[in-house]
Queue: 2 jobs
Job 1
Amino acid sequence: MKRFDAIKKIVEILDEEFVVCNIGIPSKELFHLKDRPQNFYMMGSMGLASSIALGLAISQPEKKIWCIEGDGSLLMNLGSLSTIANVNPSNLTLIVIDNGSYGSTGDQCTYTSNKTNLEVIAEGAGFKSIVKITKVEEIKYILRDLGKGCHFVLIKTNPGSALVSNIPLKPIEIKNRFMQSFTEN
Amino acid sequence: MNVDQKLYEIIKDFGIDLVLSVPCIFLKGILDLINERKEILHIPVTREEEGVGIAAGAYLGGKRPAILMQNSGLGNSINAIKSLLELYDIPVIFIMSHRGGKDEKILAQIPMGKIINKLLEVIGIKTWSIKSSKEIIKLNEAIIYSQECNCSVGVLLQKSLWSEEI
């Protein structure tokens, strides 16, 4: 399984969820697979996907917020796991697609390809609901059955990205339609 | 009303409903008020840049966030200020204690303290400096400006603001 395969399964069950997606190829893959106004594509500020998602979760407590994060970017902002676990919103699912590499910059290894274990870090940060997925067919069922809560879902994949083009939307367009979708949904 | 109460009232009355914070001894009074009164949602963060991310997400979800931190925290936030807040036109109020001024005893505060005004200017954050309780009204101006131009602003709270009361 590669990241693209994981995102493909995630979008199959996307319904009313609002999604914050990590910068780079993950956002391009998501755009390519299923563009929708409820997707917030990050174009900069690597590392802040989970923080943006936390801000959304506390400001829209009735909406389900999903964050598609990567291992390299999460390693840039590990403090965020402590904050999220302590704030403990009931509507946030942090989906970390861990391919052990910096996929948008040439597949250089991250430390999760060696000794670092994000599942254990999440537990230490205080997450109570932690799921690790290694088989692509599990993704749908596990995500669909997660109830209310603050969840950490680790999907282990191989490195490698799909050949997808850049997102043609301007950042302001992404923001405006995303914000608008809160009032419409 | 003391300085902390005045600052608190302005933050609340001008509609800020979320505060992200990294503490400073000078901000202790106002952070205590925020925690005691429970009128403004307060999330302490582990690093200032993380606060920028949470603030951005909360703004997208309809909140009006401010970040309380030492001015040194600006250095930890620059990329997020440019490639998140500016890129997507997301306004955040940065309320900073200005450490490293003339009578600063902690040497480590001085290098960042000396350049903070230039740094804010280069980043493109319009900033108000508050030196005395008479100038606290500048906080109103900064918040209104941020709302009108839909841009982030800075407020530097000088040590002299509190030393008046000691």
Job 2
Amino acid sequence: MKARIFLLLLAAVLSSGARAYDLGDFLGIKPPKNGTERPATAGEPAPKPLNLDALTTLLAARAPGEEARVGRQVAGDLLGAAPLVPDPRLQAYVNRVGRWVALQSGDNAVKWRFGVLDTPDINAFSAPGGYVFITLGLYRMLDNEAELAGVLGHEIAHVTQHDHMKILQQSTLISALGQAMGRQIKGSDQVAQNLLGNGAEILARKLDKDAEFRADRLGMVYAARAGYDPWGLPLVLQKLAALPANDSRMALLFKTHPSPAERLDALSQAIGSRFDQLGGPDLASRFYRIK
Amino acid sequence: MKHWARTAAILTGLVLSVPVWAAQGSLLRAENLRAAPAANAAIVVELAQGTAVDVVGRQGGWMKVRSGTKTGWVRLLSVRPGRAGERGVGLGEVAGLVARRPDASRVVSVAGVRGLSEESLKTAKFNVRQLEKLDSYAVSAEAARAFAAEQGLHARQVAQLPAPSTPNGGPAWGTEP
């Protein structure tokens, strides 16, 4: 049903000959000139002739090159808000654990990068194309490598499921369709502006609840496949649930995610007795502890 | 030194690790307190939803808890930290049963430190030097495999978990044999 409406809209776009925005403009991305230049933050993007290539890219669920570029933009902006913890051994450790867990996702085309952000906030982020971050505040709450693997597994799942790309594509599509059909979809420009005004802002957006629950399930599965004690992620969620709900360090996390209790409940219903036979070390002995 | 580390790792694996929040918890759902951490272990006593328990250990997906004079095992995901009705992000809050009340004494003070707010993400400036630093820490699949092998981690097949058919509905395992 939804698919049918979508096809009708798509047909309208392709036949209308109307004008739409270029995908690159929506994403705030310019063709790379020197590779280091920050793309212009969206001002008022000027309407351009319909770019069928861009629309095709946009409609294609997977476009690795596009994902990598979007991810680089988002990650670079996020690092502008919070830099990496200046501890090379910590960063190297998290990259090894993360890469090992990511190998279990089967998504080998992705160039995975992991970083610990220097902020007391308790949170973790991912960006399209294989960027995964955990904050120092959350890292300090961890007790072993299996817990780290679980947290990273959740973020790796957002990348493999293209969750953030889906938000971008949806909002871009809505706006492009609105323009193309010569009909003003109320607030569509604002939607696109809000989403794409700054790359990192996408990280303050709430994903679908089901996307979060699925990332929790996949995070546990990836950690389990990597050989770890699979209970790392739920144990971290229990620690978060034990903190006062109004702890300011979790303000953004709670704004963008279902509550830890809700996530634990969803996990418990998905797991039942399925993981009863799965053991695995938590590797507390190898866990890199910050002085 | 390496040998010592390995011995320590093995010992750590054997000793029941107690979660950091430890001590006080309560049951999210009615549960059978079992004599051992297994679904087919003998039932010590049936515990009602909301029963206060003291968490004393963990083994796999099971937590060792004490309720009154009885000690036994319940599923890890059936336990929430804190007492039922106590403030926190409990399940009651999810169900909208418990009103949020601020408790100033429990607020962790991070005054003066700016966290990652929506605003700070909006106004963040692209930092290419940090991005390059991030790139420099990336490791190859080979390096990751070697790192895993150091501690005897092996990849294993684990099926994906299906999405629960009825989110937040019905008992999860309260009725399990």
